[in-house]
Amino acid sequence: MSRHATDGPECAPSPPLPADHVLNSAAVLFPGAFDQHGCPLIVFPADQQAKLPLVLSKAEVVDFINYFLGLHNKKQERLVSVVADLREASLPTARFIAETLLLLELNKRTVHSVYIVQPKKKEVVKLLLKLLAPSRSHTASFKKVLLKETSELSNYIDRSQLTAALGGYLIYCHQSWVTFIKEIDDFVQEFLSVVKRLPSCISTLKSLSGLPLPSTFSELKHFCSTNEATFQKLRRELGLDELLRHCESVVEKLRYPEMEPCYQAMAGTALFNHTALDMHQNHSRITAAVEKVELLWQQAFSKARLQLQVFQLPSLKGPVA
Asked: What secondary structure does DSSP assign to 91-137, as a single string?
């Protein structure tokens, strides 16, 4: 989230979070690891590959990859690299992964390198090489690295970026990752919803400041109380105060991740660090928006309140000596 909460113009639509069955499947992972080129890794873990042709579609996997690549690309433009341990892969699984990679590259270059631990079955190797070979219909621009064993991955990816199943020591808990991602996305959607309503709120406050003041005390008193109620209703509908409380809650969990299991599991990852930075920036933006709305309200009714005080002055005076 890099849009300022006080900017005013309508915010760009946020891409939807991948569906629960995609996130929970663990058949495709975005663990927050990187290869030696600095490219974030997409992993197709061996123990979940049977789900690919059955539970997920190729389009869903492409959307999953593009969504999470977008989170990293707020900082700088990057390509992803892919790791697939296909030693025990079936023909349908190999076809699914190869065709997904080609689909990912259809509109623009997205993949830097593909690290494939080769299938044991010769027919699966043959199919894989055939599908990924350049042809008239497509030219796969990514680098293909074929490996005989998972241990060879450490020549291209530091072991700290590889899970135990891939010969490394990266600690990764998928359920914690899902919980963390969904909690942050809930905040993002609330944030964008408030940002979208903010210009209308500001416009209404400015129009209220232009209303003519009543000439009598009773009318002015009614005018002030009515518009105070209007402001409170406007503020509730905007949801800025609730957003600030939500933001403060998330910032607190990011500051003390040991208090929340899913935050503790994510602490230290690039995604966690990027999120913490974003949330601190968002807290400043939301606080600024709250102050701006309050200032506009004070400015809108300063004349009315001053006039009300003027009307009340005679009744506050003591007896004349």
From this structure: HHHHHHHHHHHHHHTSSS--EEEEEEEPPSSHHHHHHHHHHHS--SS
Q: Which domains does the chain have, with CATH numbers?
A: 30-171 (3.40.525.10), 176-316 (1.20.58)
State both tokens at 196: 């979208």
Determine contact, residues 286/5, Cβ cutoff 8 Å: yes
DSSP line for 160-198: GGSBGGGTS-B---HHHHHHHHHHHHHHHHHHHHHHHHH
Residue 280, CB-side half-sphere exposure with 13 Å CA sphere: 7
- The whole-angstrom separation of Cα 32 and Cα 174 is 11
- Of 13, 5, 166, nearest to 81 by C-alpha is 166
Residue range 215-255, pLDDT digits in tens: 788 887 888 888 888 888 999 999 999 999 999 999 999 99
Q: Average of pLDDT values for 14-43?
A: 91
Measuring CA to CA, which residue among 47, 72, 49 is closest to residue 164?
47
Say if CB 147 and CB 117 are below 8 A apart: yes
Q: For 127-163, how does the pLDDT look when each residue is reduced to its tens digit (9 = 90+)?
A: 998 998 876 666 667 899 999 999 999 999 999 999 9
Q: For residue 158, report the phi and psi dihedrals to the nearest 5 degrees.
A: -60, 145
Q: To 10 degrees, what angle do helices 91-104 and 58-72 make? A: 50
At 63 the three-state DSSP class reads: helix
Instruction: Let me know the angle formed at the C-alpha of 243 by 238 and 248, rounded to the nearest 5 degrees.
Output: 155
- State pTM to two decimals: 0.81
Question: What local confidence, expressed as pLDDT, does residue 14 receive?
Answer: 61
